[in-house]
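Q: Please design a sequence for this.
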């Protein structure tokens, strides 16, 4: 080993223990690679190689921290804290000295800190405050294969910074399972370093057949673990998807034959730091840790030789089509299952039991879907806009998010006033929102709280909602005795009920709190967040002075942050709700606001029910009033009255509808329709054929055809043709003053129809496109009706006997339009069509006469 690593701090035993880790195989190559300008290094090293703890120390020992600090980005807060503690211990220091950590709302660093473990969003925010990253020499992206959203974004920003103003910045990307090809292209030019590691062999075992839903996963895990413990040594690690399943698994393990002799501990992100530390520490008896996927990477749990993997994880996603968060239990990928199995082979040969079959394993996805493709992007989009990237679609994405996800994020930010329009730059309000390390919704609430004088209440409300729910869902109704007069009835808001629960827990202590279904540990964490939010608000010059809590002001703050989640109860008998943007959901059964018709929803989630069906659950509801919508969002509030025809009543009714954006706020209210609107609706029904005007008969239709044809034949007359739109206008005139069918059914039609023309125009119509035509040459004058069509000449239908004596052709419109003659037999059936009677008599009549005379001998024949 090169002498430059001989001064790693700590005792001789500590140094030897660290330096035998496999990662030291690439130590010299790593130090050489980071000396070059625009240094980019991709480190591929398996689980247990020591990359997370030792690479920062290697770089520090090589002198890189003399010109700036080392920042190690971790995907999870738990890993950032524990790794900092581990490296601080290995360097014989305290956390917050040479080595520290910074996670959201928790900063254990000092001016002496040179190695800083942080969660990914922390560094991205620092880039906004200081675009040059002054004081930072090395940025290490650990466990990058997990593809967390902020890791992707921060890496892209670091590359841009290195290409522009900080060529001395060193970028190191580390992973255990990542397919390096795509990332190597993205980082190019970069140095690829690989450490083979020295993993102990791990035996993989699968179920021989799938188990049914009647065998809960926690019981299956406990039974299989009991079998494995009988033939193995060492501690065990059981992977479960969430805190609920972890608790059920612990209970099941304690009921097994070996459960009494085991130390069984949970490990997940919602535990206190002391409980998390206990899970990773050595114990006096055989230990079983039941963990979520926080134990997949980074963390080292000494002594683990047995892994039981449920193959499940709770995966957070955001559906941009519906604008809802989902948290569903899903099958993990093969890469993730390999990471879990590797936990069993870090210190000795191990055994991993996968609670699914080998065939099912082969059908699983190779890798997890990156967060950039499945999470809400609004917070990161606001951060990018603050960094001067207005066109986020053209950002240097490692993997481009879905266009719908970006669109949804920008629309939300525009609604909050954080950006100008749907695709515009950040506003002054948006920059102020960035000061608060919370989702943009809550940041907007803080600024609204300043206007309404309730910053302190908003800080408390925000602190309560950032972590685990303070109330057990099944026991929320036990809070009836916690009412106070400060906020009024608990039926006003689920948020206010949580505030009361927190106040009660602070006064009553853990035992009484648990009896009432209050998470006391969560209540303790709320106080820390509350204090930090107040400090941040004070730094931003907000008024954090003590004031009586104002429930209405806080409700308006919630409305400012969640205006796109306004909901209306659909009826009083169910918990079904309609929301803005044409969505529907079900209000949580434990909600305290079930009697209110209008709500704003703090959380919309899609969850999997017991029957495996997906339900859109609405939680954290607050009652609001319609006048608040008018006051706060005047441009989004509309009220319109529309008339419609009621088929049952056969009348026109007017309904007034009030909307907030596209959400109808209540059932439409009926009122007498305006006369013009009633006539329009009745006319539409008539024209569509659903209502019949008895006096609008064939003769009226013929009159309209006569007018339209004459207007075409003799344009010099300047007659106004009657179009379909004009026809509707005439029908509307007929319907004026009426609201029901009975009033128009037998109404006279001709006065309205003929009013379309002046007297002179009517005379023109009767003269040049007559209803009837006189047959010339007859001893006794005879008039016969003409039938007009939309095209072609008019038609006259007459029996042969009626035409005897008519020798010349018939015309109308000053001789311009010939009349088509339909010659009928005595039985009135057509036998010939002609425009020239002279030709007919000469050429066709002799033959017809022979045929028809035999058939009709009693009729006159010439």
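A: Design:
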């Amino acid at each position: 080993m090169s002498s430059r690593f001989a001064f790693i701090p700590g005792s001789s035993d500590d140094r030897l223990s660290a330096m035998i880790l496999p990662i030291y195989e690439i130590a010299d190559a790593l130090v050489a690679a980071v000396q070059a300008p625009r240094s980019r290094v991709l480190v591929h090293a398996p689980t247990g190689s020591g990359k997370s703890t030792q690479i920062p120390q290697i770089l520090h020992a090589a002198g890189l921290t003399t010109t700036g600090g080392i920042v190690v980005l971790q995907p999870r807060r738990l890993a950032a804290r524990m790794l900092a503690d581990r490296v601080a211990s290995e360097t014989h220091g305290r956390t917050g000295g040479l080595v520290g950590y910074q996670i959201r709302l928790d900063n254990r660093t000092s001016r002496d800190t040179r190695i800083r473990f942080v969660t990914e969003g922390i560094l991205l925010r620092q880039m906004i405050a200081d675009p040059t990253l002054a004081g930072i020499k090395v940025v290490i992206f650990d466990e990058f294969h997990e593809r967390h959203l902020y890791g992707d974004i921060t890496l892209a920003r670091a590359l841009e910074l290195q290409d522009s103003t900080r060529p001395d910045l060193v970028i190191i990307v580390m992973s255990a399972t990542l397919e390096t090809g795509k990332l190597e292209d993205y980082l190019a030019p970069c140095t690829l370093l690989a450490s083979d590691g020295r993993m102990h062999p791990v035996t993989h075992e699968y179920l021989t057949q799938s188990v049914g839903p009647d065998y809960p996963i926690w019981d299956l895990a406990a039974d299989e673990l009991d079998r494995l413990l009988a033939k193995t040594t060492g501690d065990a690690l059981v992977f479960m998807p969430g805190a609920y399943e972890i608790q059920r698994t612990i209970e099941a393990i304690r009921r097994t034959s070996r459960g009494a002799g085991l130390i069984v501990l949970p490990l997940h992100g919602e535990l206190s730091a002391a409980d998390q530390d206990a899970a990773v520490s050595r114990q006096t008896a055989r230990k079983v840790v039941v963990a979520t996927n926080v134990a997949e990477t980074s963390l080292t749990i000494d002594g683990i030789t047995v892994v039981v993997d449920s193959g499940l994880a709770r995966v957070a996603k955001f559906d941009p089509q519906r604008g809802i968060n989902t948290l569903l239990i899903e099958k993990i990928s093969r890469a993730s299952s390999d990471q879990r199995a590797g936990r069993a082979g870090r210190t000795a040969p191990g055994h991993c039991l996968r609670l699914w079959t080998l065939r099912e394993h082969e059908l699983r996805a190779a890798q997890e879907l990156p967060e950039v493709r499945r999470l809400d992007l609004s917070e990161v989009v606001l951060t990018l806009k603050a960094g001067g990237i207005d066109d986020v679609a053209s950002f240097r994405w490692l993997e481009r998010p879905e266009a719908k996800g970006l669109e949804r994020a920008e629309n939300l930010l525009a609604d909050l006033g954080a950006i100008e329009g749907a695709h515009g730059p950040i506003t002054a309000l948006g920059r102020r929102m960035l000061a608060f390390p919370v989702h943009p919704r809550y940041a907007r609430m803080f600024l609204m709280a300043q206007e309404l004088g309730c910053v302190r209440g908003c800080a408390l409300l925000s602190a309560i909602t950032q972590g685990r729910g303070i109330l057990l869902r099944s026991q929320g109704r036990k809070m009836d005795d916690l009412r106070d007069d400060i906020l009024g009835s608990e039926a006003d808001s689920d948020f206010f009920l949580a505030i009361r629960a927190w106040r009660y827990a602070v006064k009553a202590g853990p035992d009484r709190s648990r009896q009432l279904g209050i998470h006391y540990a969560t209540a303790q964490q709320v106080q820390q967040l509350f204090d930090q939010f107040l400090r941040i608000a004070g730094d931003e010059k907000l008024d954090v002075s003590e004031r009586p809590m104002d429930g209405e002001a806080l409700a308006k703050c919630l409305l400012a942050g969640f205006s796109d989640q306004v909901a209306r109860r659909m009826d009083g008998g169910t918990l079904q709700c309609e929301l803005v943007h044409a969505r529907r959901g079900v209000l949580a059964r434990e909600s305290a606001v079930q009697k209110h018709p209008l709500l704003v929803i703090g959380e919309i989630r899609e969850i999997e029910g017991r029957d495996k069906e997906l339900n859109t659950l609405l939680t954290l509801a607050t009652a609001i009033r319609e006048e608040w919508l008018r006051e706060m969002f005047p441009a989004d509030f509309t009220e319109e009255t529309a008339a419609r025809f009621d088929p049952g009543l056969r009348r026109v009714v007017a309904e007034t509808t009030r909307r907030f954006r596209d959400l109808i706020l209540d059932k439409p209210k009926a009122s007498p329709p305006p006369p013009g609107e009633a006539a329009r609706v009745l006319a539409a029904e008539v024209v569509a054929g659903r209502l019949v005007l008895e006096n609008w008969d064939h003769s009226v239709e013929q009159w309209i055809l006569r007018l339209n044809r004459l207007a075409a034949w003799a344009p010099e007359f300047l007659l106004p043709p009657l179009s379909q739109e004009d026809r509707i206008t005439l029908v509307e005139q007929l319907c004026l003053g009426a609201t029901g069918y009975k009033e128009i059914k037998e109404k006279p039609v001709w006065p309205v129809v003929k009013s379309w023309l002046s007297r002179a125009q009517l005379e023109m119509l009767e003269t040049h496109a007559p209803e009837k035509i006189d047959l010339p040459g007859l001893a006794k004058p005879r008039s016969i009706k003409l039938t007009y069509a939309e095209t072609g000449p008019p038609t006259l239908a007459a029996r042969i006997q009626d035409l005897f004596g008519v020798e010349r052709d018939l015309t109308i419109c000053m001789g311009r339009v010939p009349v088509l003659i339909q010659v009928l037999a005595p039985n009135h059936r057509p036998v010939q069509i002609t425009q020239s009677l002279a030709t007919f008599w000469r050429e066709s009549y002799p033959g017809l006469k022979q045929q028809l005379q035999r058939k009709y001998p009693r009729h006159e024949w010439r």
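Q: Thanks. Anything notable?
A: The longest strand covers residues 598-608. The radius of gyration is 42 Å.
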